[in-house]
Amino acid sequence: MSTQRRETGHLDAIRERLYTAVISDVLDACGYRNQALASAIRPLDDALVMAGYARTGVYREVYHVEPGENPYALEIALVDDLKRDDVVVFGCGGSQRIAPWGELLSTAAKARGAAGCVTDGLVRDIRQIRRLGFPVFHGGIAPLDSKGRGKVAEIDVPIRCAGVLIHPGDLVVGDADGAVVIPREVEDEVLKRAFDKVSGEDSTRAELEAGAKLADVFARHGIL
Predict the structure, then answer these.
(1) pLDDT, mean over the chain
(2) What pLDDT, on a 0 to 100 scale, did the predictor assign at position 75?
C-alpha cells in the first residue's frame, strides 16, 4: 500500500542546498537526537545526494525456502508500487547474511522515479548500481542472494534501521556524511530551520574566507 502522497517540489531545493550535517544539527536542537543512521551506513557513491520519503520493509533471517514459495513476494510488491521520490528503507537488523538490494531492484526503482534506497543489510552488484547513478546507502557489500537467508516480513510499517525508528512517509536525506531521518511531524519546522542555518553558514564562511577570526564570527552568528 502506497503512503499518502505529498507535494515534493521542495525536494530539489533540499538536494541542492541542504546537507545531512546541518539537518542533524537542527534535529538535535529540536530535541530529536537519534535521527542519524549508524556511521556504518555508507553511500555507494559519495557524489550523489538523496532526498525522499520512506517506503519501509523489515527483513527477518531465514535458513530455508519452502517448496513453491516465492521468497521475494513482498519485496517485489513494494518495488512495483514505488512512486516518484520514494526511498526504499529495508531494515535487516544489521544482518551480515542478507543482501536485499542489487542492480535489478535499482533499475526498477529508478524507472519508477524513486529517490534511493537505504538498508542496514548488505548490497551487491555495486559497479552496475554506480553506473545507474542511483543513490544507495548500505551496511556492507557482499555477493550474497537474500534467498534462503532473509525475506521481507512486512512492508509499509514502522521499522528500525541502523538504530533509527523510521515510519512510512518520513523524510530521508543522505549524502557523503551519511543518512538522517526527519520525522513527518516536525518536517516543516526542521526544513525551515535548516535552510535558515545554511544561509547563516554561508555568511559565516564568507567572513572566514575574508580572514575574520573564528571567535569573532562565532560571536556574531553563533554558528560553528
Answers:
(1) 91
(2) 96
